[in-house]
Write a structure and sequence with these properties.
Elements: H1 18-25, E1 34-36, E2 39-41, H2 53-57, E3 62-66, E4 79-83, H3 97-117, H4 129-134
Parallel strand pairs: 3-4
Antiparallel strand pairs: 1-2
């Protein structure tokens, strides 16, 4: 099977098929690829783990990147804000309810740590934050 990277924007997707493409983007190569309109797709992370270049080509310069692994991204042409895990997330193959809850909690904590460093008046935390945290306990 010949594999070619494909960049598809929402405007190119037929109505009602966005969910199919989202599912295909999470289809890892060891598993069966997702077939859409006769073409087979799988997770683009095998080609570009953090595909910010697609947005750069479209002229975007201010990006918030959410990483699932450690490490930073450097691109002097862009204003990048990177949210990266403060602790290892372990193997992505560990799919259990407890593991997923733990990963979600870690992601929430990383996002809160990131937002606490931000300056400005165009965002805010709602008082209901505590209830959101309770979902991840």
């Amino acid at each position: 099977m010949q594999m070619t990277p494909v960049e598809i924007s929402k405007n190119e997707i037929k109505k009602g098929q966005v969910a199919d493409y989202v599912i295909a983007s999470a289809s890892n190569p060891p598993f069966k690829p997702m077939e859409i309109n006769g073409d087979k797709y799988f997770d683009g992370g095998a080609y570009a783990n953090c595909p910010y270049e697609t947005l750069k080509k479209k002229g975007y310069t201010d990006l918030v990147i959410i990483r699932t692994n450690e490490g930073d991204i450097v691109d002097s042409e862009l204003n990048l804000q990177v949210i990266a895990p403060q602790a290892s997330l372990g193997s992505c193959a560990l799919f259990s309810i407890d593991n997923i809850k733990d990963l979600r909690r870690k992601g929430l904590m990383d996002a809160i740590a990131f937002m606490d460093k931000m300056k400005g008046d165009s965002f805010f935390w709602k008082k209901k934050k505590k209830k959101l945290l309770e979902l991840y306990k």
